[in-house]
Task: structure prediction
Amino acid sequence: MAQIWHEELRARGYRVTPQRQLVLEAITELEHANPEEICGRVQQTARGVNISTVYRTLELLENLGLVTHTHLSHGAPTYHLAEEADHVHLVCRDCGEVNEAPLEVVGGLVSRLDDDLGFEADVRHLTVFGLCATCRERDRARDGDPARGESPGRAASGGSRPGPKEPKSPTTA
Result:
């Protein structure tokens, strides 16, 4: 993996600096991480690297196609290696669990956008918020409505659920 990064950076006229190497290693180890988490990991090895350096490095690495980002919450973007970005993210608005689903799951949407609107969609940044299977099942059991999984009080009153918790580490769906 490191050799590919080195070749890609050099092929485009960039040096392989220790900071760039450490940021890429942190992203690889953490899988999905925000800039602060990446900076924390980098600073375990190189205390002098600050958050500005991490942000600049992430921007460069994304422009070079080595990393990509998505938004799993209202906070900072989450980064991961671009070669591992062939999925969409499913974030539970109740427990914060993050799952990954293959791009084929949204293939119908992509086809429809192309056929109906002539729009070529890139869904690798797509994050879908909803309820995970565990939370849906919990709600069904609590509400006594196994078919719908929706609280009659919530549906009638228009009430809402509490805000989403911080996303957990992604798992493959």
Observations:
- The chain has two domains: 1-84, 86-144.
